[in-house]
Amino acid sequence: MIKLPDWACHDETYTPDRDRDYYITRSLLRLMLVLQALRQQAGRQQRVSALPGLSCTLLLILSLVLTQHSAYLFAVGAGEAVLLCLLPAKTLRQNLAGALLATAFCTLIVLPALWLGNGQRVLLLPAKTLLTVIALNLLQENFAWHSLTHACRQLHVPGIAIFVLDTTLRYIVLLGEEAAQLLTALKLRSVGHNPHKGRAIGGLLGVLLLRSQQMSLEMYDAMRCRCFTGDYPAPPTRLRLCRCDLLLAALTLGYLYLFLRLEVLP
Known about the structure:
This protein is mainly alpha-helical. It has a domain at 48-188 and 205-224 and 243-263. It has helices at residues 6-9, 22-42, 50-66, 70-85, 89-115, 124-142, 145-154, 159-189, 197-225, 243-263. It is extended.
């Protein structure tokens, strides 16, 4: 019969100090929310084709940048308000919060110009910022990323730019999952009070950096084995216009006519 040592026979009385791990938990939750949003965005059902939607959005943003009349901004704002009403309440709040934050930042930038007496036209810039951000939010809410990159290829955007964008979006998801696993491991192994939280997070970021470098090297070798020449062709597809596409095109033509009537035509 084996006799245990005296220290093994005593009860364990160690009680670790309480420590706050709110930072780790909050970072993990935010990261999981971003990954969930990316996955949901990739599988969205589209009522409008990506090519007409992207083209109309670019034309609308260009007209917003060039206009000097507030009447045109009110007309575009009315159309965007109707489209925003079709979104769920939670999505609507998120989109409006981001747009209002960008508008507030732009307003702070142009306030000195207004104070110096450069006229009230400088206030058009925050309004343009608000409408432009809302237009981009509506675009990403109604179209998946892969359909947008495919539409960019149909608009003859250089293939290497689309390849970099598409690859970046995919690796954001992969590195996000890797970071979520590292944060979970750090949370499970955090026992007691840790006065050096910055050192722990720094080690996590270092591991994530090394992992991203390893993944980039593996992808470079894989593309070399596949004889990648920089061309990123899009599969041939036949453009089919539905009623929603025609409605969007008619709305865009109406805005363009209003823009030309206010800015160019007498």
